[in-house]
């Protein structure tokens, strides 16, 4: 069982498993629990609590100086921007973000970027761990909410939505809340269909034909299938909606249990099911996001708990038809504005292979591609790629500089790193392992502000120090 430091719930899947089920998959694998019913509700009676205290050990060294939800994503965003955008786009704007591990940059980002209108009683506010209920930090996801229960008492909402802060997906949360109300549930768990052959890697929900949860199954060899579709299983996403009264009572009860792991997936929800309470599942595959007309993107959800999954999610963005589409104006992924100028591409000396060019890539504001080549890569704000260099299938964080004649392949380079001229990374894994952090699959990760030694370069190159 993972403690709060990782903020992944017991009945969620493994961090290194990703999932992208689409509407096309649903046609291939028919069967469902219960479709969403549109029920009107007052959004001011829904308090949102985002669990954003995750340490993200398997994202090391990207989490060396920051919490997992603060890790950059998609060139100009942070991971936490995804879930916050989902709630703001859904009109649910009373949000508390619970932080703990190395939270300074995350809290600064929220304070500076996510400033809503107080006159409309809208807020997104960070709440750091405070040891309000004893001399311990958050012991689990449920304990995190329990230690911050004063927020619920102060706001007096009818419903509390508790979501993780470190997954990549789009969701109109109003539909899940409507589903919760229509079923008269005391708690609702969002789930995503996965093929049964892969379901042993997940925490699987067993539900009846009406969507009422019967049991939870933690990574079992033969998990139960969906009602009407035995070839698919429902995997928990770790996103919940609770009736406030039920939530407060269960948190108080759980706090007195010495044997409890103080986790929603392991303790709170299974306990409610055993009591016979009305706990229902919400099938995420039926969630319809405005502007998402391409069925290939419907139901996309990815856990980026490992470096490989994080890198792959970035590569998903640069597909010709990305399942996670950043270009949907009706459901924008929001973040702070920058004053950086547009990206610039210079030099077209094709005879000497000195061409500033990027293909199948995302290049953020302030970048200068000065005679270098970019292919299938994501560049954050303010990067510079100098002449004759090549960057392929890589992710560059802010203000990375690539020297002349350098070559990078399958790399993640954290912010403020300067790659010396002539450096080659990603072409000799054994050599890379002696210098950098390298995953089992050969993905090279260079930590923030790392100092790299200069590589040998051509002494006859008279312009080796310019772009």
Describe this structure in words.
With 467 residues, the chain is α/β, with parallel strands linked by helices. The protein is built from 10 helices and 32 strands. Strands 2, 5, 6, 7, 9, 10, 11, 12 and 13 form a 9-stranded mixed sheet that branches. The protein has a 6-stranded mixed sheet with strand order 19-22-25-28-32-31. Strands 15-20-23-26-29 form a 5-stranded parallel sheet, with no helix packed on it. The termini are far apart.
Q: What is the topology?
A:
Layout: E1 19-20, H1 23-28, E2 46-51, E3 72-73, E4 77-78, H2 79-89, E5 94-99, H3 104-113, E6 123-128, H4 141-147, H5 149-155, E7 159-164, E8 167-169, H6 173-182, E9 187-195, E10 203-207, E11 213-218, E12 232-243, H7 244-255, H8 264-274, E13 279-283, E14 300-303, H9 307-317, E15 344-346, E16 348-349, E17 354-355, E18 357-359, E19 362-363, E20 368-370, E21 373-375, E22 378-379, E23 384-385, E24 390-392, E25 395-396, E26 401-402, E27 407-409, E28 411-413, E29 418-419, E30 424-425, H10 429-435, E31 437-438, E32 444-446
Parallel strand pairs: 2-5, 2-7, 5-6, 9-13, 15-20, 18-21, 19-22, 20-23, 21-24, 22-25, 23-26, 24-27, 25-28, 26-29, 27-30, 28-32
Antiparallel strand pairs: 1-14, 3-4, 7-12, 8-14, 9-12, 10-11, 10-12, 16-17, 31-32
Helix pairs in contact: 4-7
């Amino acid at each position: 069982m993972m403690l709060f430091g990782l903020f992944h719930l017991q009945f969620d899947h493994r961090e290194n498993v990703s999932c992208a089920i689409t509407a096309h998959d649903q046609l291939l694998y028919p069967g469902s629990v219960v479709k969403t019913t549109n029920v009107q509700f007052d959004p001011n009676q829904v308090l949102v609590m985002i669990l954003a205290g995750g340490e993200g050990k398997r994202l090391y060294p990207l989490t060396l100086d920051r919490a997992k939800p603060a890790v950059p994503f998609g060139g100009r965003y942070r991971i936490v921007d995804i879930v916050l955008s989902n709630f703001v786009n859904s009109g649910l704007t009373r949000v508390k973000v619970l932080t703990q591990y190395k939270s300074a940059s995350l809290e600064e980002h929220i304070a500076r970027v996510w400033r809503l209108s107080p006159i409309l009683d809208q807020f997104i506010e960070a709440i750091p761990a405070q040891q309000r209920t004893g001399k311990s930090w958050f012991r689990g996801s449920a304990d995190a909410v329990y230690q911050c229960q004063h927020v619920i008492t102060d706001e007096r909402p009818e419903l509390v939505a508790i979501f993780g802060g470190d997954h990549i997906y789009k969701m109109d949360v109003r539909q899940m809340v409507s589903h919760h109300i229509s079923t008269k549930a005391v708690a609702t768990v969002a789930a995503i269909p996965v093929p049964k052959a892969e379901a042993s890697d997940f925490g699987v929900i067993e539900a009846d034909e009406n969507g009422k949860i019967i049991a939870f199954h933690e990574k079992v060899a033969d998990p139960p299938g969906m009602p009407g579709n035995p070839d698919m299983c429902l995997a928990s996403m770790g996103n919940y909606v609770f009736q406030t009264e039920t939530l407060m009572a269960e948190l108080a009860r759980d706090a007195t249990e010495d044997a409890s792991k103080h986790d929603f997936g392991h303790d709170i929800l299974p306990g409610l099911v055993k009591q016979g309470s009305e706990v229902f599942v919400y099938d995420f595959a039926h969630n319809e996001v405005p502007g998402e007309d391409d069925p290939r993107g419907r139901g996309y959800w990815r856990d980026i708990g490992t470096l490989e999954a994080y890198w792959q999610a970035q590569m998903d963005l640069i597909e010709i038809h990305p399942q996670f589409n950043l270009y949907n104006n009706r459901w924008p992924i929001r973040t702070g504005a920058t004053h950086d100028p547009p990206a610039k591409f210079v030099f077209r000396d094709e005879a000497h292979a000195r061409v500033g060019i990027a293909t199948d890539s995302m290049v953020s504001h302030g970048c200068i591609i000065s005679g270098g080549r970019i292919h299938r890569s994501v560049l954050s704000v303010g990067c510079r790629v100098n002449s004759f260099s090549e960057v392929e299938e890589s992710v560059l964080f802010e203000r990375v500089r690539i020297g002349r004649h350098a070559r990078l392949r399958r790399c993640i380079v954290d912010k403020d790193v300067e790659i010396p001229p002539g450096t080659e990374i990603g072409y000799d894994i054994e050599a890379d392992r002696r210098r950098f952090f390298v995953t089992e699959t050969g993905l090279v990760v260079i930590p923030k502000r790392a100092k790299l030694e200069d590589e040998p370069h051509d002494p006859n190159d008279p312009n080796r120090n310019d772009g």
